[in-house]
Amino acid sequence: MDAQSRGRADEIDPADQWVLNPRTGNYELRLGHSAAQQRSVAAPRRSRRSPSAPAAPRPAAPAVPKPRRGDGPPPGGRRGGRSRKAGGGGPQRRRKTLLVTAGTLAFLLVGGALGSYFYYEHLNDNLKVIDTGQSGSFKKDQPINILVIGTDKRSGKGNEGYGDAESVGHADTTILFHVSKDRTNATALSIPRDLITDIPACPTKQPGGAVKEIPGTKATRFNNSLGQEGRDPGCTMRTVKALTGIEVDNFMMVDFNAVKNLSTAVGGVPVCVEKDVVDRDSKLNLKAGEHRLQGEQALAFVRTRHAFGNESDLDRIKTQQQFLSSMMREMKSKETLTSPKKFFSLAEAATKSLTVDQGLGSIAKLTDLAGELKDMNLKNITFTTLPVLDNPNEPSSRKATVVMNSSQADPLLEMIRGDVSLTEVEKKENAAKEAAEADAKNKQDALLQGNRAPAGDVRVDVYNGGGPPGSASTTLTWLQNSKGVLKASNHGNASARLAATQLEYAPNQADQARALADMMGLSAAALKVGTVDAGPRTPMKLTLGSDFKEPGAPLGAPEAPRQAPEGLQRVEADKAVCAK
After folding, report:
1. CB within 8 A of 195, min separation 6: which ones?
2. Across all residues in the chain, what is the average pLDDT?
3. How far lies 36's CA from each of 8, 13, 41, 105, 207, in Å?
4. pTM of the predicted model, to two decimals?
């Protein structure tokens, strides 16, 4: 049974079973019309439940009024009866019954599939779950990093003729989807499959339950992090962390059928091409201009390597980013939001296409994730690609792989780790805040302007508030023996931990504070001046924070850069562009 027909009974579309409840204005699942309808959403399979676990009692089906004339769906799924007037239906009819969110295509789909218990369980059973041994999940008060993996596995009806028929399913398309802590923006970082990198050792759970340690591999293609030697998506997660320094929370994996089924369910994805395209390999055949692609043609569009740019995988990544952006816009469109049939077809296609880790292994967990993203605007989602260079170890006549361009990749990755948005919109909105911060910094810098007290006049008590054990003692010894600060004292551990080292002093101790700041490598941000002058024998208070490593090392982590690397490739999710 292929992916289109799987999960249906007697050729009844699950979307056709949803009708408008005139009492609530909500679409609800109509049960009891026929045995066939009940079979299509009845008792879900138990494949994901332990055989010894008792069956959970099912709640009673929600009471739904019998259909009135015009309320029930005729054959074909459309609701007859009343004509729909412009702007009609009233506010009750236009309630937010279908929760649709921004983010990756999977996030966009799962948020609204909670109409009834039976359908909920039906979608739950569509999901495929892999235990990677990393069963944690995202945290609501922290940034979210989801790894979206598209494999080149040729399983599924109609996919036998694509590429390498023997492929075990490699990481052909990989996007690290970073969601900001405040949930206002996201960066989707594409990682080229032909990037040469190191794959770390990876413990992988085998079908029988045993854990097998797969040795790491040096200097190999990134796409070998999945499938090769039995590696699972957890190995790709570990590879991405080693490559970027970014902790990955969870993964979502899809295959070729996802593109075909999702594009069909949404009614086609709008694309634009600047020139006529005829690609015999992918079988893409388009005239210049705008098109609406679905099914096989949509898959051909995201697979083509010879239609655009310099016919490389890097240009294919750009095309894929444009396609995903267009699909997001289509899913957020009024035509999708107001069509129950289209919406639930999307829910079916999405859940049948998804493989996830245990941290996202249910509709409830996916819906929880969707809730985190529901207020994000597409204008604040930016696609980009990890900057790379041609592999210098390959001859100029045969350039097949790439290596990371550290001069551009390092500041980009630092931005993502620092939760800094790539979108121009976000930068403009932060301009006033940054100006205020710059003004405050200038005032702090002024604190460092002035006379310095002699080392012998500096009085300070040293506390350890987050540095390595014994930091207060080693700092005291260093100040006394190396800097001549003989009026320093060790007061052991502070009452509270600090992230950054801090020096507290009185206004009349400013010259002592400047002298100690020079010795310790403290920035102006580390200085905290009081309001009342201190007595002649009152010491300042130096608390070593988590940023302290050793005496004399400059303190204070550098701020994440506020500008993207020059020439960084990007695709804004809210903007339609033509593939070149």
Report:
1. 221, 222, 386, 388, 401, 402, 403, 404
2. 77
3. 9, 11, 9, 31, 35
4. 0.62
